[in-house]
Amino acid sequence: MASAARAGEGTSAAVGGAGSGSWWDDYSETKFKQTFRMRRSTFNLICDMLKSELKDPEKKVAICLLRVATRENFANLAVKFGSSPESCRKRCVAVCDAIWKVMLPMYLSWPDIVDLTKNTADFHLISGIPHVVGSMHTIHVPLNMNAHRSNPSTSLAPAEVFLNRPSSKNIFTAHSTLLQGVVNPQGLFIDFAAGSPGSMSDDDVLVRSKLYEMVNTGIRDLRGMWIVGTSGCPLLDWLLTPYPRPRTLPQHTLNDKIFKIQEVAKEAFSRLKGRWSILQLIDVKPKELYLTLGVCCVLHNICEMNGDEIDPSLKFHLMDDELLPQIADLTSKSAKKARDKIAEYLASCT
Fold first, then answer.
1. 307 and 168 in a common domain
2. Which residue of 43, 199, 213, 297 lies most exposed, with the fewest beta carbons within 10 A?
């Protein structure tokens, strides 16, 4: 991600700007950011980078951004942009496809060794725990099943699979999909797994993820490094999780330090879900679900890397509903010993 372009660096100065005849041309910078959740320069950057995939991208990008930022339905978007609802939907999907192809490799990718080393140093400053390269968290993204039922062609059958998993903090019957992500110390996504049914546990999502597969097959080498996970994830040789029932001072100390790292991911998800409110109730076709979730993560990184701070009032309050790991026999014995050593070390430093 170090090579990703920033707004104003080698981009056209007036993409979608004066002369394009768009209704947002006369918006002040403040109103523009309120509408599209990013500054005009970042909007221009996205349009400029997608020119190779989209003809006249400004209107299409605007439709897509309004859709993910405000959850505006396609009927209302059609009125705003002088088009049909289906045309708006197709344009939104086209922009998401283009972002996935062009911008995802630049803005959301696994760090190289230089960036991994920097991550470990930054996380060490945050927590005192050595060799941490990422912080993992999982959120529910509510599904608007009524929208799918009213249009059988978009059905997410069987609906029961997407019922939220039961927990002490999640007592209402609802449908959702899951988004699991790993962030760096700055809250930028470096990996994500999206689209699993809300009935699945965190460890279920993990073991089905590309990250788990790549680490276990050696394609992604995390030897001597940690990703910090939640209590819903198993303790692995590369995944450090808190003690489920801490009893000793070292165990409590380590958990406190882990929670500091977890907070980085939770804050990132709070900004993600607040900026892109489509993640507060999503109603896309099943084949577009994974694409939409991933594009929101990419757009999050683009905004954060370009200094587009989110309005604090938009931040979304996350509700934890973590359960202990549901899959037996995943916990690593060597990781248990390593976690104990880290706990003893941190306790000795206090």
1. yes
2. 213
Q: How many domains does the chain have?
A: 2
Question: What is the reported pLDDT for 200?
Answer: 87
H or E element at residue 191: strand 189-197
Q: Are 8 and 41 in contact (CB under 8 A)?
A: yes
Global pTM value: 0.89
With helix as H, strand as E and coil as C, how does 239-292 read? EECCCCCCCCHHHHHHHHHHHHHHHHHHHHHHHHHHHCHHHHCECCCHHHHHHH
The angle, 0 to 180 degrees and rounded to 10, between the axes of the packed helices 57-70 and 286-305 is 100
Tokens of 57: 């991208």
Last residue of a domain, one of 107, 136, 168: 107
In a domain, 18, yes or no: no
Alpha helices for 23-110 (secondary structure H): 29-36, 40-49, 57-70, 74-81, 85-98, 104-107
Say yes or no: 279 and 176 in one domain.
Answer: yes
pLDDT higher at 318 or 228: 228
Q: What are 159's two structure tokens?
A: 């609906």
Name the DSSP class of 318.
P
| Section 73-79 average pLDDT | 95
CB 271 within 8 A of CB 253: no
What is the pLDDT, as a whole number, of residue 171? Answer: 45
Contact 92, 50 (CB under 8 A): no
**Order of strands, sheet of 176-183, starting from the edge strand that comes earlier in the sequence:** 189-197, 176-183, 132-142, 226-228, 239-240
pLDDT band for 146, please (50, 70, 90 cuts): low
Residues 153-162 have pLDDT tens digits of: 444 445 555 6
Domain that holds residue 141: 113-349
118 and 102 in a common domain: no
Domain check: are 192 and 262 in the same one? yes
Same domain, 238 and 271: yes
Sort strands 176-183 and 132-142 into parallel, antiparallel or unpaired.
Answer: antiparallel
Answer with the one of 86, 107, 128 that is the final residue of a domain.
107
